[in-house]
Amino acid sequence: MIVFDGSSAWTYWARRALFLANQVWGGVGFALVPHRDGVVDPALLHACRAYDPDYVVAFGRTLSEIDHFEPGKLPIRGADGTTLTGADRAEALASAARESGSAPSEADLQARDLVSSACSPYQFDSAEPLLDDVFLLECPSPSFPAAMDVPGAHQGHVLQCPPSWGGLLGVAIASKIGMVEPPDIAAPTPPENPEASSELIRWLLGQPVGPLPRELLWFPNGVSTGVLTEQSQHAFDRTMAGLTWVASTAHRGRIDTAVLGDTAEDFALARLRDLTYGRTVWLPSIVGTEDVTLAYPIVAKLYGSLGRSRGWKHEALAITSVSRPHEELTDFRERLVASTAGTFRAESVVPDRVHVIPAVEADWPGSGFTQVAVQEQFDDVLPVPTFTDETGTTEMVAPLPAPSLNDAALAAHSGLSWQVDVTWADSHSIRGRRVVGSELFGARTHEWLTMARASRSGISHRAERFDFVPAGTQTVNQLARPTLRNLSLAGYLNAKAAEHDMTTRVSDAGQRTAQLTRMLGGRREFASLFGGPLLSALHDLLPTSSSVEEAYPDGRGVVLRAGEGVLSFDGFVDRTDRLSDKEVRGELDRALRARVLRRGLVLRCAVCQSKQFLIIDKLAQTWRCERCDSGNELDHSAWHHSTCEPAWFYGLHPVAQHLLRDHGDVVALLSAHLSAPSQGRPVRYQDLMELEFVKDTEPQVEVDLIAYREDALIVAECKHSDDLGGGVRVKRRAEIDKKCRAAAWVQADQLVFATTASAWKPSAVGAISAAVRGFEGWSACNRPVVRLITGLGTNSFHEEVIRSGP
Hints:
The protein is of the alpha+beta class. Helices cover 30% and strands 18% of the residues. Helix 1 runs parallel beside helix 7 and helix 23 crosses helix 24.
């Protein structure tokens, strides 16, 4: 990923960056990110995170380029200290430029660090990113070899953006086919012939055209041979020998995102999204987006392929822009829909499938990626022995095979540097978030063997070894064979806590949750019981009154003592209106098998007259009183019931009673809500409850729930009341700040405040909004979305989303 200046001269900087990218292997996949005085647009930071770069490099500028675009900025002085002018200045500047080469500015470096903080590039154990700026300072370099030096690289003529073509059209062409020669610094917008420009625009939009301008052809050594056609190889093709584009979903030639606008940010957003997912087109004004009736190539590119697709009813077209206001995008949408009249079948024109979306709110899903990979080895399946520790982290017992290349031409080039993506089967790892590389290595791998990072695929590592390799070592033994760790949610949180010199542990309340989770067999089972349809009945097992008539007026329960009661089967059925008798029976049986619920009889001691619940495991014809230890006969005098046989009752395990008294079920309700299927489809979900971040044995922050749902990391605070901090303003602010700190530490995407109350107090909502917006610990890209949930577990459930930043 290349960070460049997005100011007024951005079209030149972008073309030069594309030229440099095309000089190195795999350059077709390089993304470009503009900045303005070191600031990168938030929409692009989200795009960078989804694109997931291995490296983030700053653009180097020469003295000549700086002097051209910022005349007078560089004072050139002679040996006597006087300021040079005219020819003397030009000669001295040229000499200085030859000696100094190119270098990024302070703003470039600031923007590079900003982009790097939003992604998870390679880094050292200090958590500092590895920034291989030698790529742009001395291109090509050993890490990024020249494309033409690679055996098998295309040697013939190719299509390229001519160096003398600049402006928006030049950038669009360079982004499509690449550049072999460096761009002219003062290149104008091409070409002067309007008909030729129209043909180029049609070609850019994928429409059949006549002969392309001869200027697009580049010939090796200037020898003009070959025929110019639409199928001629592109300049980027020189970097693709042995490589191929891999996509996890079929494209079918459709476009699902159109980015409008003439700024560097609009261009970069479209390129980033196209490199990440495909199916994206950039529409600057030069293609005719301002026309009242849009030209056929635009309509066909955006609407035609979607309208003809069999899957159209499930697809949509998003129109977005970084620079254009919402009103202009809406106007373009209306003109687009109107321009389809008479062009496509009426049934294929579906206006409600065309949406206008702000760039900062664009969706960046965690699937459907495209990428460049080695053609013969992008889907190898490797069985490796592993073990899983108590946190759920999976570690390799044996190292991976050496990542040797099958392609003889690629293997012959010792200067190539490969990245290895490892995806674990049925993985629940937290993807695409920065983790210190050593946390990803198993115990059998030294941290200096190579570098690793948490990528969108799982784990990426460099193919070559970085430790001592004796001279004459065979090529296969010069490659890294690490053992890797697939971090669970708990493993990831431990790693993030360690970055801040902290550890994590289960809180006292969490100990009860953990015990019940073990008894029930898992977190989903815990959330299903304490956040499911039996919850209202479970709450009735903790009566607030000691009077049976008040606690159980239906006669289907018995109060044993204040705060403890039991229910009959019919009592559960009456309190669970969403389930049939058979379903209630099944839920009860599962809880009984886990010993969270216990079946027994309500008996009265003949000696001390105490009423007690005797579980089935302790029943015998002669039973002992739990209070006075007297022996009793199991007969009608003991159960004192009007029927001939005793009735079974069901009571809660003491740990479960304690959990409900402390409102631990609110966390289970939120867990059940977050893990619920979406549109009938199960979601990928895991969570941890009641977790503390600890520093020097002192608790820093306690979090009720940390969940990972469909690649979104969630930090949640759960309440049974409608306020935070007991309604005390200082305590409320401190409580919210603690949750913000935890969210920042773990790079959370969402910060949730949930309650079983019907609404949050307005003062609580205002405090949450103010505290989150005013929190200074957020990074540029990792400001979480705030979700306010009320009526949790009731029919009055409501959710509101507020933004934590602009």
